[in-house]
Amino acid sequence: MGLYQKGLFHLGMESNFDHLRLINFARVIRVDDSKETQICLRDKEAFGIYQMYFIHYSVHKTAYKHRVTSAISLMIADALKEANSVIKMPKRDGTMVMMSECIKEKNMDAYLNLTDEVIRQILLNPDPRLEIARQLVRDVWRRKLYMFVIESTPIQSRRFTHEQEDEIRDGILNVLKQKKNSVLRKEHVIIELVNFSFGIEEPHGEHLLLFQSQPNRWETSICRAAK
What we know:
Order of helices and strands: HHEEHHEEHHHHEE
Oligomer: single chain
Radius of gyration: 24 Å
Protein backbone atom coordinates (compact mmCIF):
# COMPACT_ATOMS: atom_id res chain seq x y z
CA MET A 1 0.00 0.00 0.00
CA GLY A 2 2.79 2.38 0.85
CA LEU A 3 4.48 1.48 -2.43
CA TYR A 4 1.42 2.65 -4.35
CA GLN A 5 1.36 5.95 -2.49
CA LYS A 6 5.08 6.44 -3.10
CA GLY A 7 4.64 5.81 -6.82
CA LEU A 8 1.73 8.25 -7.04
CA PHE A 9 3.71 10.93 -5.21
CA HIS A 10 6.74 10.74 -7.49
CA LEU A 11 4.56 10.61 -10.60
CA GLY A 12 2.57 13.66 -9.53
CA MET A 13 -0.67 11.67 -9.57
CA GLU A 14 -3.46 11.99 -7.03
CA SER A 15 -5.78 9.40 -5.52
CA ASN A 16 -8.51 9.27 -2.89
CA PHE A 17 -7.21 5.95 -1.62
CA ASP A 18 -6.36 6.20 2.08
CA HIS A 19 -3.94 3.43 3.05
CA LEU A 20 -3.83 4.60 6.68
CA ARG A 21 -7.58 4.07 7.00
CA LEU A 22 -7.22 0.57 5.59
CA ILE A 23 -4.45 -0.22 8.09
CA ASN A 24 -6.58 1.19 10.93
CA PHE A 25 -9.39 -1.27 10.15
CA ALA A 26 -7.08 -4.29 9.89
CA ARG A 27 -7.07 -7.05 12.51
CA VAL A 28 -5.02 -10.20 12.97
CA ILE A 29 -7.65 -12.90 13.47
CA ARG A 30 -7.51 -16.66 13.89
CA VAL A 31 -9.12 -18.35 10.87
CA ASP A 32 -11.74 -21.11 11.16
CA ASP A 33 -10.85 -21.97 14.76
CA SER A 34 -7.41 -23.07 13.61
CA LYS A 35 -3.97 -21.95 14.71
CA GLU A 36 -3.53 -20.03 11.49
CA THR A 37 -3.90 -16.27 11.70
CA GLN A 38 -4.42 -13.79 8.90
CA ILE A 39 -4.68 -10.05 8.45
CA CYS A 40 -8.39 -9.31 8.00
CA LEU A 41 -10.19 -6.09 7.15
CA ARG A 42 -13.57 -4.63 8.00
CA ASP A 43 -16.22 -5.65 5.49
CA LYS A 44 -17.07 -2.02 4.75
CA GLU A 45 -13.50 -1.50 3.50
CA ALA A 46 -14.00 -3.78 0.48
CA PHE A 47 -14.32 -0.71 -1.74
CA GLY A 48 -10.94 0.47 -0.46
CA ILE A 49 -9.45 -2.78 -1.75
CA TYR A 50 -10.97 -2.06 -5.15
CA GLN A 51 -9.35 1.36 -5.08
CA MET A 52 -5.97 -0.11 -4.15
CA TYR A 53 -5.97 -2.61 -7.01
CA PHE A 54 -7.26 0.01 -9.45
CA ILE A 55 -4.31 2.25 -8.51
CA HIS A 56 -2.00 -0.69 -9.22
CA TYR A 57 -3.57 -1.09 -12.66
CA SER A 58 -3.66 2.61 -13.58
CA VAL A 59 -0.06 3.34 -12.48
CA HIS A 60 1.27 0.46 -14.57
CA LYS A 61 -0.90 1.40 -17.51
CA THR A 62 -0.03 5.11 -17.55
CA ALA A 63 3.55 5.10 -16.24
CA TYR A 64 5.45 1.92 -15.44
CA LYS A 65 4.51 0.17 -18.71
CA HIS A 66 4.08 3.27 -20.86
CA ARG A 67 5.69 2.95 -24.29
CA VAL A 68 8.22 5.73 -23.56
CA THR A 69 9.18 4.10 -20.26
CA SER A 70 9.64 0.77 -22.03
CA ALA A 71 11.78 2.33 -24.77
CA ILE A 72 14.09 3.98 -22.24
CA SER A 73 14.34 0.74 -20.22
CA LEU A 74 15.27 -1.25 -23.32
CA MET A 75 17.92 1.29 -24.37
CA ILE A 76 19.50 1.41 -20.90
CA ALA A 77 19.51 -2.40 -20.83
CA ASP A 78 21.25 -2.51 -24.23
CA ALA A 79 23.81 0.04 -23.03
CA LEU A 80 24.56 -2.08 -19.96
CA LYS A 81 24.97 -5.17 -22.13
CA GLU A 82 27.48 -3.34 -24.32
CA ALA A 83 29.40 -2.17 -21.23
CA ASN A 84 29.24 -5.47 -19.37
CA SER A 85 32.71 -6.68 -20.38
CA VAL A 86 34.35 -3.29 -19.84
CA ILE A 87 32.95 -1.80 -16.63
CA LYS A 88 33.41 -4.10 -13.65
CA MET A 89 32.36 -3.86 -10.01
CA PRO A 90 34.83 -4.29 -7.10
CA LYS A 91 34.36 -6.82 -4.33
CA ARG A 92 35.57 -6.39 -0.77
CA ASP A 93 38.72 -8.40 -1.51
CA GLY A 94 39.56 -6.11 -4.44
CA THR A 95 38.66 -8.52 -7.21
CA MET A 96 36.56 -7.17 -10.08
CA VAL A 97 33.50 -8.90 -11.51
CA MET A 98 31.33 -8.14 -14.52
CA MET A 99 28.01 -6.46 -13.90
CA SER A 100 26.10 -9.53 -15.06
CA GLU A 101 27.92 -11.60 -12.42
CA CYS A 102 26.89 -9.31 -9.55
CA ILE A 103 23.54 -11.05 -9.19
CA LYS A 104 25.18 -14.21 -7.91
CA GLU A 105 25.05 -14.75 -4.17
CA LYS A 106 28.83 -14.93 -3.83
CA ASN A 107 29.11 -11.46 -5.43
CA MET A 108 26.59 -9.58 -3.30
CA ASP A 109 29.32 -7.25 -2.02
CA ALA A 110 29.96 -6.20 -5.63
CA TYR A 111 26.22 -5.87 -6.24
CA LEU A 112 26.08 -3.13 -3.60
CA ASN A 113 28.29 -1.00 -5.87
CA LEU A 114 26.01 -1.48 -8.89
CA THR A 115 24.07 1.80 -8.78
CA ASP A 116 22.91 4.43 -11.27
CA GLU A 117 26.48 5.75 -11.19
CA VAL A 118 27.33 3.14 -13.82
CA ILE A 119 25.56 5.29 -16.44
CA ARG A 120 27.92 8.15 -15.63
CA GLN A 121 30.88 5.77 -15.86
CA ILE A 122 29.79 4.77 -19.35
CA LEU A 123 29.73 8.41 -20.45
CA LEU A 124 33.08 9.38 -18.90
CA ASN A 125 35.08 6.27 -19.77
CA PRO A 126 37.00 6.92 -23.05
CA ASP A 127 37.39 3.21 -23.83
CA PRO A 128 36.47 2.76 -27.53
CA ARG A 129 34.67 -0.47 -26.65
CA LEU A 130 32.03 1.68 -24.93
CA GLU A 131 31.19 3.79 -27.97
CA ILE A 132 27.88 2.02 -28.66
CA ALA A 133 26.91 2.17 -24.97
CA ARG A 134 27.78 5.89 -24.81
CA GLN A 135 25.71 6.61 -27.90
CA LEU A 136 22.72 4.76 -26.45
CA VAL A 137 22.86 6.80 -23.23
CA ARG A 138 23.22 10.05 -25.19
CA ASP A 139 20.23 9.08 -27.32
CA VAL A 140 18.15 8.58 -24.16
CA TRP A 141 19.11 12.05 -22.94
CA ARG A 142 18.29 13.55 -26.33
CA ARG A 143 14.99 11.64 -26.50
CA LYS A 144 16.09 9.80 -29.63
CA LEU A 145 14.34 6.68 -28.42
CA TYR A 146 13.58 3.36 -30.02
CA MET A 147 10.61 3.87 -32.32
CA PHE A 148 7.28 2.59 -31.07
CA VAL A 149 5.42 0.94 -33.95
CA ILE A 150 2.18 -0.53 -32.71
CA GLU A 151 0.31 -1.76 -29.65
CA SER A 152 -1.97 -4.73 -30.21
CA THR A 153 -4.43 -6.49 -27.93
CA PRO A 154 -4.42 -10.30 -28.35
CA ILE A 155 -7.52 -12.05 -29.61
CA GLN A 156 -9.97 -12.65 -26.78
CA SER A 157 -9.26 -15.78 -24.71
CA ARG A 158 -5.79 -16.14 -26.30
CA ARG A 159 -2.79 -15.39 -24.12
CA PHE A 160 0.83 -15.23 -25.18
CA THR A 161 3.84 -16.16 -23.10
CA HIS A 162 7.33 -14.67 -23.18
CA GLU A 163 8.55 -17.88 -24.81
CA GLN A 164 6.47 -16.91 -27.87
CA GLU A 165 8.17 -13.55 -28.42
CA ASP A 166 10.50 -15.03 -31.07
CA GLU A 167 7.51 -16.61 -32.82
CA ILE A 168 5.71 -13.25 -32.94
CA ARG A 169 8.87 -11.49 -34.18
CA ASP A 170 9.38 -14.06 -36.93
CA GLY A 171 5.77 -13.63 -38.03
CA ILE A 172 6.22 -9.86 -38.33
CA LEU A 173 9.45 -10.25 -40.31
CA ASN A 174 7.86 -12.77 -42.67
CA VAL A 175 5.12 -10.25 -43.48
CA LEU A 176 7.68 -7.49 -44.03
CA LYS A 177 9.74 -9.67 -46.37
CA GLN A 178 6.83 -9.62 -48.78
CA LYS A 179 7.18 -5.85 -49.07
CA LYS A 180 9.86 -4.20 -51.17
CA ASN A 181 12.81 -2.32 -49.67
CA SER A 182 12.41 -3.90 -46.22
CA VAL A 183 15.80 -3.81 -44.48
CA LEU A 184 14.65 -4.86 -40.99
CA ARG A 185 16.51 -7.72 -39.37
CA LYS A 186 15.58 -9.81 -36.38
CA GLU A 187 17.67 -7.71 -34.00
CA HIS A 188 15.81 -4.57 -35.11
CA VAL A 189 12.43 -5.81 -33.86
CA ILE A 190 11.63 -5.88 -30.14
CA ILE A 191 8.49 -7.57 -28.84
CA GLU A 192 7.38 -6.76 -25.31
CA LEU A 193 4.46 -8.68 -23.83
CA VAL A 194 2.72 -6.77 -21.05
CA ASN A 195 -0.01 -8.15 -18.82
CA PHE A 196 -2.18 -5.53 -17.13
CA SER A 197 -4.05 -6.81 -14.10
CA PHE A 198 -5.13 -5.73 -10.65
CA GLY A 199 -2.00 -7.22 -9.09
CA ILE A 200 -3.11 -10.86 -9.10
CA GLU A 201 -4.47 -13.39 -11.58
CA GLU A 202 -7.90 -13.59 -9.94
CA PRO A 203 -10.57 -11.30 -11.44
CA HIS A 204 -11.39 -9.76 -8.06
CA GLY A 205 -8.63 -9.28 -5.52
CA GLU A 206 -10.98 -8.92 -2.57
CA HIS A 207 -12.05 -12.57 -2.99
CA LEU A 208 -8.65 -13.62 -1.62
CA LEU A 209 -9.04 -11.51 1.52
CA LEU A 210 -10.88 -12.28 4.72
CA PHE A 211 -13.18 -9.63 6.16
CA GLN A 212 -14.70 -9.22 9.60
CA SER A 213 -17.95 -7.51 10.54
CA GLN A 214 -18.47 -5.15 13.45
CA PRO A 215 -20.79 -7.36 15.58
CA ASN A 216 -18.33 -10.26 15.42
CA ARG A 217 -15.06 -8.46 15.13
CA TRP A 218 -13.03 -11.58 15.83
CA GLU A 219 -14.86 -13.78 13.31
CA THR A 220 -14.15 -13.79 9.58
CA SER A 221 -16.12 -14.27 6.39
CA ILE A 222 -15.44 -14.00 2.67
CA CYS A 223 -16.87 -10.79 1.25
CA ARG A 224 -17.98 -11.37 -2.36
CA ALA A 225 -18.16 -8.63 -4.97
CA ALA A 226 -21.93 -9.09 -5.30
CA LYS A 227 -22.32 -7.92 -1.73
